[in-house]
Amino acid sequence: MTNRVTLPLTLLLLFTFCTTSTTNKPTLHDYHVGEKWVWSWKRTVEGEVRSEGEDIQEVVDYHGSLGFWNGVDTSLISTTLNQEQRSTPFRDWPLYVGKKWKYESEWENNEGTKGKTSQDVEVVAFEDLQVIAGKFKAYKITYEGIVTNSRGFKGEMSDTWWYSPELKNYIKHVNKDGYGVYTNELTNYSSSR
Length: 193
Fold this sequence. Notes:
mainly beta, about 10% helix, ten-stranded antiparallel sheet
């Protein structure tokens, strides 16, 4: 009798702990005026810090709607959330461990150089990550591929992002472009509640 009860209970517990979580894209109602994220970033080349700074994102009232303020400009959150899902998106919702997709982007930097990024993406883990702001559960998402630009550059680029469903944002980003390493880490999060 004990074996008949123990085996199903063991299987149930094993199945519960092995299931993967799935996270959908945040909605406008998930954000609140006063929420604020602060990241510190630095760029190192051959072990030497070449530049560093701080980025912010704060939820503000913007003409009667919610907006993201980055310290200079404000963009409507609804516009950001309601962008049409491309066939090669930066994030392909919902997120879950094992999900794979292709990310492609054409861009232009502030110096007028145009480029294209093409990367294979995979959600490789849902793990605890300690950052300066605290310890959070986050999806570890890897991006591996090529970047090219109008100056004739072509090189490999890898990015690793940790996205926290609880904070509705990334908590760490590491970019390696063959010349240096760019690291961005959440140093502070304040909720409006």
